[in-house]
User: Fold Major facilitator superfamily (MFS) profile domain-containing protein from Monosporascus ibericus.
Amino acid sequence: MGISEKEPTVIATAATPDSRSESVLPFAETGQSSSEELDIQGDCIPDGGLLAWRQVLAGHLGSAVSSGLPATFGVFQLYYTSTFALPAAQISWIGSVQVFCSNCACVAGGRLTDAGYAREAILAGSTLVVIGLSLASIATQYWEVLLAQGLCTGLGLGLIWMPSMAVVSSYFKKRRALALALATAGTGTGSMAFPATVQYLVPYIGFAWAVRCLGLVILTMLILQSLLLKPRFAKPKTRGPIIEVGAFKELTFLYFTMGTFLFYWALYFGFFYVSQLLRNTPIP
Assistant:
């Protein structure tokens, strides 16, 4: 009988959410993906408990802001069209730039999360969102609103969304689908709360103060999210490309990306124009 060769045993120290110094080799040295890193320490994934479900609530709040606010632009579309006396197609560029910047900023937000800076990314995004809404409330020109609400706020939304979802995923394995569904359901929460805030306050305190109140509501939600959030990444990916080009070699992922790209072409038409359509359509 030949002598069987045993594979070398790898001993991994379980890292707590607050510690990174005891984790094993970084990504660049192990060559394993982020999902594989979590599977290595599968026994350490809570998959439930008060702390884990607290992250779901934090993700719900983050999703309410990052995905719910762009869906609110229909209210702004109606006001800007009448205020600036510009075509609706030109006004919609504000919301379009916001959505575009939000998706592009997810690249930076995801990379920062991989490197272990999820909380810092959300803090930076929260700052940009609040500053953008504050500047939009005092803007008097079209280009000012485009830069404030379109560019600044959009970049902040992208930095919030990706870390929020990544932290939720790191706490669950068997219940990951349920946890992510509850977290992303925050889109509906924001889509209901934010338009109502602006629409019902404008007749009483004016548009500028209504936007500032909206910013205060969003700031409160983001502060609560930061208090609830507790990232836990055993091995931060400190080195590597910003964009994993090799992932597009997998046909399933490539088709999913193409489908999502085409999906966004039609998604926001209703969000942007439904209020204006109802305003201009006579009721028999």
